């Protein structure tokens, strides 16, 4: 990435990775990503974060374009995930006067990551660092999304180095959000990033946002993707909405998802949805075959109850069910109501397997599963209504 100026005193010096197509083994990155690092050129020099180890040469070149590496006074580490701390040891080799500034939890991690001694200032929430003409304030935000996370606020320029909050896996030459050509694609990646990386930590996002409310924020510089210079209010509002606690909503909600080979499980799903609606539960009823897994996960995360239906095929649940169950995570599911139903022909193992997975995900699965042989009869439909009524009671 070419270096560029973002605010009066801050320059982007990170690296672009346009070829990356999967991040952290799990997240598709159709537009690549960037490993952001920032040089704060005060009377003292500070670097915020480094880049992944294999991008060291790009990073070194960028910093050297702007300053003598040996003159760096501080290296701020907002969190220690290796895509941001991976070049730190090499930087310390040629910036021997630099002191690392990070949380105590990050200091502990860095010892394990670098296996060497280093000069370090550990900071607590609200601590400040004087760069001569500029002041950095540290906002400690554990579990946003690592235990060692903090954000850094440059007071004089109302600029926030937000760590992974407000990030996006997106990559273009000039990493500002004032782009016109690819703005919509960027915003989509911004939303995906929240969903996949940050949403498991929604309560911590809410407390992070509360801390930010005390400050005026003009510019946001995240650890991945464009600096937010033009649409700051919109992106802050997006996060407030993304992280909103759906338990504050009065309406009860349930996702009734299913696969159905011959319509038997579908018939049950429709009866369960009908039963829930009779009890004033808002229902998302969907055949998940071919559906987008990320979108399905978001619905499950936002609902009070998740009711999964599947036939048994070759003594197992079919692949779309496992794809969805594999994409869910404990932090998003813990404590929600879970239940299982399905039609089978002669063995019916699927409902037991799905139930076990829901229990692993820490759903509350108290309801006995509803398993029906072949096409549901009128009595089975009544049983499905009763099954739904009991779920509605437990939400
Ligand atoms: Fe790419 Fe948690 O950082």
Write the layout of secondary structure elements.
Elements: E1 4-5, E2 10-12, E3 15-17, E4 22-23, E5 27-28, E6 33-35, E7 38-41, E8 45-48, H1 56-66, E9 74-76, H2 82-85, H3 88-94, E10 99-102, H4 104-114, E11 120-122, E12 128-130, E13 135-140, E14 150-154, E15 159-163, H5 183-198, H6 202-213, E16 219-222, H7 232-242, E17 252-258, H8 264-278, E18 281-287, H9 293-302, E19 305-309, H10 319-327, H11 330-333, E20 337-344, H12 350-360, E21 370-373, H13 378-394
Parallel strand pairs: 8-9, 9-10, 10-11, 15-16, 17-18, 17-19, 19-20, 20-21
Antiparallel strand pairs: 1-2, 2-7, 3-6, 4-5, 7-8, 12-13, 13-14, 14-15
Helix pairs in contact: 6-7, 8-13
The structure holds MU-OXO-diiron (FEO).
Percentage of residues in DSSP E strands: 15-25%
**Can you list the ligands bound to this structure?**
MU-OXO-diiron
Described by strand count, sense and barrel closure, the largest sheet is: 7 strands, mixed
Strand order of the largest sheet: 1-2-7-8-9-10-11
The number of distinct helices, counting runs of at least 4 residues, comes to 13
What is the residue-mean pLDDT, rounded to a whole number?
A: 94
State the end-to-end distance.
50 Å
Backbone structural class:
alpha/beta
Rg from Cα: 25 Å
Query: pLDDT under 50 segments (min length 5)?
Result: none
For the secondary structure, the number of strands is 21
Helix content: 25-40%
The coarse silhouette is elongated
Explain what you see.
It contains 13 helices and 21 strands. It has helices at 56-66, 82-85, 88-94, 104-114, 183-198, 202-213, 232-242, 264-278, 293-302, 319-327, 330-333, 350-360, 378-394, and strands spanning 4-5, 10-12, 15-17, 22-23, 27-28, 33-35, 38-41, 45-48, 74-76, 99-102, 120-122, 128-130, 135-140, 150-154, 159-163, 219-222, 252-258, 281-287, 305-309, 337-344, 370-373. It starts with a strand and ends with a helix. MU-OXO-diiron (FEO) binds at residues 79, 81, 83-84, 145-146, 164, 223-224.
């Amino acid at each position: 990435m070419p270096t560029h100026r973002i605010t009066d005193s801050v320059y982007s010096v990170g690296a672009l990775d346009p070829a990356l197509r999967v991040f952290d083994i799990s997240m598709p990155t159709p537009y690549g990503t960037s490993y952001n690092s920032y040089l704060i050129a005060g009377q003292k020099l500070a670097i915020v974060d480094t880049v992944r180890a294999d991008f060291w040469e790009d990073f070194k070149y960028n910093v050297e374009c702007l300053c003598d590496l040996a003159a760096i006074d501080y290296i701020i580490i907002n969190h220690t995930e290796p895509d941001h701390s991976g070049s730190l040891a090499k930087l310390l080799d040629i910036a021997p006067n630099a002191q690392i500034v990070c949380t105590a939890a990050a200091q502990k991690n860095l010892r394990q990551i670098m296996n060497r001694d280093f000069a370090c200032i550990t900071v607590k929430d609200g601590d400040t660092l004087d760069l001569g003409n500029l002041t950095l304030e540290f906002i400690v935000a554990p579990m946003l999304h690592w235990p060692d996370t903090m954000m850094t606020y440059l007071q004089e320029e109302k600029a926030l180095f937000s760590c992974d909050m407000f990030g996006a896996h997106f990559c273009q030459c000039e990493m500002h959000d004032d782009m016109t050509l690819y703005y919509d694609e960027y915003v989509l990646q911004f939303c995906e990033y929240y969903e996949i990386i940050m949403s498991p930590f929604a309560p911590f996002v809410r407390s992070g946002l509360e801390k930010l409310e005390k400050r005026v924020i003009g510019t946001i510089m995240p650890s991945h993707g464009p600096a937010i210079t033009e649409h700051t209010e919109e992106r802050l509002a997006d996060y407030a909405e993304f992280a909103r606690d759906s338990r504050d909503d009065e309406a009860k909600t349930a996702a009734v998802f299913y696969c159905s080979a011959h319509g038997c499980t579908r018939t049950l799903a429709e009866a369960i949805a009908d039963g829930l609606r009779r009890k004033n539960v808002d229902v998302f009823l969907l055949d998940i075959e071919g559906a987008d897994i990320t979108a399905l996960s978001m619905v499950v995360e936002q609902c009070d109850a998740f009711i999964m239906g599947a036939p048994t095929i070759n003594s197992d649940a079919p692949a779309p069910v496992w794809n969805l169950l594999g994409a869910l995570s404990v932090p998003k599911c813990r404590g929600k109501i879970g239940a299982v139903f399905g039609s089978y022909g002669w063995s019916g193992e699927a409902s037991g397997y799905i139930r076990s997975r829901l229990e692993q995900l820490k759903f509350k699965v108290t309801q006995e599963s509803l398993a029906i042989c072949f096409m549901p009869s009128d009595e089975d439909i009544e049983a499905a209504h009763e099954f739904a009524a009991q779920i509605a009671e437990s939400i």
